[in-house]
Amino acid sequence: MPHESETEKTGWLEHAAVRYQSGAPQPTVDRIAEEWPVALVFNGISHAVMMTTPCDLEAFAAGFALTEGIVASGREIQDIEVEFGEDQAAVHLTIVQQAFAGLKDKRRALAGRTGCGVCGIESIELLDLQPEHVSDHGFLRTLSPDAVRQAAHQLPAHQALMKLTGGVHAAAWCDAQGTVRQVFEDVGRHNALDKLIGHLVLKRESLQQGFVFMSSRASYELVRKAARMDIAMLATISAPSSLAVKIAHQAGVRLVSFCRENGYVEYTPGHGAGEVAPRSGT
């Protein structure tokens, strides 16, 4: 089982700055969100280096392994150790042999291909845009009509790092009533989601009785990660991309964006290409 080895990190630092107001300079000290290179090492082999806020790295590594399909469940992660350096870190994961063999096969498939620059994927053919279909576990039928409004109202109070720095995203886990249960923050929206998912899985929490609320736009990788984890609903404060909407339709993920306390926009498969279904109030 993973164990706690992570030194406490704040996720921010202070830096001298000059603030200009009405044209007048004023020396000050600003708080800035940290962004570190973090190496993810599986069974001794470095697999990826991610730029992330150096907090909750055990949860981040577990979530990455799950949402990228490296492991099929939290049970396939045997151990996690975090090693901090100066402005960098490495997370060492020990995974079961079957999962590690699959990872090595993926690495061999990447060898010798020409890069196309899509988030580390080395050829367009390797870009996985075929999501799993979310199972019908009844959550959406129990979802409160007021849930999105409640989540939008509660989220700011949980964004401690955002209040300090103004420069991070948040991923929140909400129950059927919209109550915010867990929040993780990071300079990267997908990292924040991985931290949230990793924490929930390591704590053996159900992913079928809640929804994700993000302080960001809805990009395709967020929907793809939600679908892989059988999460029925993704809500975001900002707009979705066209590919996010398409993948949500394919996966059966309920996607709602522009979420505010007074309404949101839902993107439903029943409308034509390029059309959206507005839904005011929740």
Explain this structure:
This protein folds into two domains: 12-125, Ubiquitin-like (UB roll); 139-280, Cytidine Deaminase, domain 2 (3-Layer(aba) Sandwich). It is built from eight helices and 13 strands. The protein has helices spanning 57-67, 97-110, 139-142, 147-154, 160-165, 189-202, 220-228, 242-251, and strands at residues 12-21, 24-33, 36-42, 45-52, 77-84, 89-95, 169-174, 180-186, 211-214, 233-236, 254-260, 263-267, 277-280. The strands form three sheets. It has a seven-stranded mixed beta sheet with strand order 8-7-9-10-11-12-13, with helices on both faces. The chain has a four-stranded mixed beta sheet with strand order 4-3-6-5. It has a two-stranded antiparallel ribbon with strand order 1-2. The longest helix has 14 residues, at 97-110.
